[in-house]
Design goal:
Strand content: 15-25%
Shape: globular
CATH class of the largest domain: Alpha Beta
Largest sheet: 6 strands, parallel
Helix content: 25-40%
Radius of gyration: 19 Å
Distance between the termini: 40 Å
Number of helices: 10
CATH topology of the largest domain: Rossmann fold
Order of helices and strands: EHEHEHEHHHEHEHHHEEE
Structural class: alpha/beta
Amino acid sequence: MLIARTLADLRASVSSLRASHGSLALVPTMGALHDGHRALVRAAGASGAAVVTSIFVNPLQFGASDDLARYPRDEAKDLAILEASGCALVWMPEAATMYPPDGATTISVNGPAENWEGAMRPGHFRGVATVCAKLFGQVRPDRAYFGEKDWQQLQVVRRMVDDLQLPLSIVAVETVREPNGLAMSSRNRFLTEGERVRAPLLHTVMTETARTLADGRDADAPLETARRKLNGAGLAVDYLALVNGVTLVEVPKTAAGTRLIAAVRLGSIRLIDNIAA
């Protein structure tokens, strides 16, 4: 497995992999890898492409209230996971490489970026779109793989790629869950033992709500019932909504492509999740 830390090394490695494999698949990450990331790398490798995984804790997508310094980092463990998963190249740039001091360009996305996480974390999706655009330009992949767990992020990146007519495909990979249903996240490691017992309730309640909505009834009452249940169990609801899966606009009833999305606060951790509804 190759490791690149400079743009010159990246370009040389990418050129070599392109010559040997014909196509490249990118898995963008911020490190602290888990089974969800393994699934992305395996899916990318199954396409026959050489897999490039980036590890970069992107400061531009952290808000003033987010703790950038607290974000988990474990380079040795991450590299071992990637090598065992079949990754061909790891791109590990410095912050100054991604954001030169004289840089003057960022990318703003409206549409699917405007509400939910976009409203809760102003500037977050500007950071996501900007770093993804940079990674796409640096690696020039044929495909990039993103987990459905961050559903809104997935739609924001797809919209950016479509709007800017970038020459790659965005491939979604199904959310990987712990046996109790909790969506895997790098931040789950910060949950206390007691919080880990309560955290799976989010997925349980969402699944129950999706079943209730399946008969086409109006979403208001089932969603309010779900919010009360979560809040009552100590999972403070930031939002729980039924939305169009592409535009993220709230809708009154289930239909083809609708999605149930949620974010709750449990102790110091925000849990986000989504399921088809």
